[in-house]
Design a protein that fits this description.
The structure holds two protein chains of two kinds. Helices cover about 0% and strands about 55% of the residues of chain A. Chain A contains no helices and eleven strands. Chain B is about 0% helix and about 50% strand. In chain B, strands 2, 4, 5, 6, 9, 10 and 11 form a seven-stranded mixed beta sheet that branches. A four-stranded antiparallel beta sheet of chain B has the order 1-3-8-7, with no helix packed on it. The radius of gyration of chain B is 13 Å and the shape is globular. The chains are: A mainly beta, B mainly beta.
Chain lengths: ~130, ~110
């Protein structure tokens, strides 16, 4: 069964770059029909979507983070990566990677996407 | 961005209670609405997709309804394992957004 596991440095200094990895096991990242996302939860706050990366390699980011974020995929290692530059204390959060799947409704010829698989998250603290 | 507003932000309930959580979108999103359950230290869990479709493996006492701007998650009979925070999420816009969450606490 496919599993996702995030890993990261734990602590990042302000103004530095946060780099996270999401390792995929039990299946291939290369399989079509899905896209992959990063989501975070800041302390005492709700879930915040960071961005998506599609099987074409294209990306789409949260407009509020777009200028600082980059996502990529390494198919040879079966890993996703997230880079967030110029971090501040506001970037302190638990970061999750997730897989998006879809339900296809033939009646209306529409795909309905949802996050059906999540990693357990990794806590990143921005502090000097 | 499409804003998703959940209410209440928290509620207290007892085992066996019927619990209703609402989610309102700032514009019409059809049925592009998902619900997740989140417990501390755990990965979020998909409960409902496309507003009313129960995810495989999710107990049948969970149900979802609604369309356009107003949606509801109902827990038909609250079980001990259901105390958690619940989030709605819209996927109508490619800029995905979540509601602020509803914490279901022990009364």
């Amino acid at each position: 069964q496919l599993q996702l596991q995030e890993s990261g440095p734990g602590v990042v200094q302000p103004s530095q770059t946060l780099s996270l990895i999401c390792s995929v096991s039990g299946g291939s990242l290369n399989r079509g029909g899905f896209y992959w996302s990063w989501i975070r939860q800041q302390p005492t706050k709700g879930l915040e979507w960071i961005g998506n990366i599609y099987d074409t390699g294209s990306t789409y980011y949260n407009p509020s983070l777009q200028s600082r974020v980059a996502m990529s995929v390494d198919m040879s290692k079966n890993q996703l990566s997230l880079k967030l530059i110029a971090v501040t204390a506001a970037d302190t959060a638990v970061y999750y990677c997730a897989r998006a799947s879809y339900y296809y409704d033939r009646n209306v010829i529409q795909k309905y996407w949802y996050f059906d698989l999540w990693g357990s998250g990794t806590l990143i603290t921005v502090s000097s | 961005d499409i804003q998703m507003t959940q209410s209440p932000s928290s509620l207290s309930a007892s085992v066996g209670d019927r619990v209703t959580i609402t989610c309102r979108a700032s514009q019409s999103i059809g049925t592009y609405l998902n619900w997740y359950q989140h417990k501390p230290g755990k990965a979020p869990r998909l409960l409902i997709y496309a507003a009313s479709h129960l995810q495989s493996g999710v107990p049948s006492w969970f149900s979802g309804s609604g369309s356009d701007t107003d949606f509801t998650l109902t827990i038909g009979s609250l079980q001990p394992e259901d105390f958690a925070t619940y989030y709605c999420q819209q996927t109508y816009s490619p800029s995905l957004t979540f509601g602020g969450g509803t914490s279901v606490e022990v009364k």
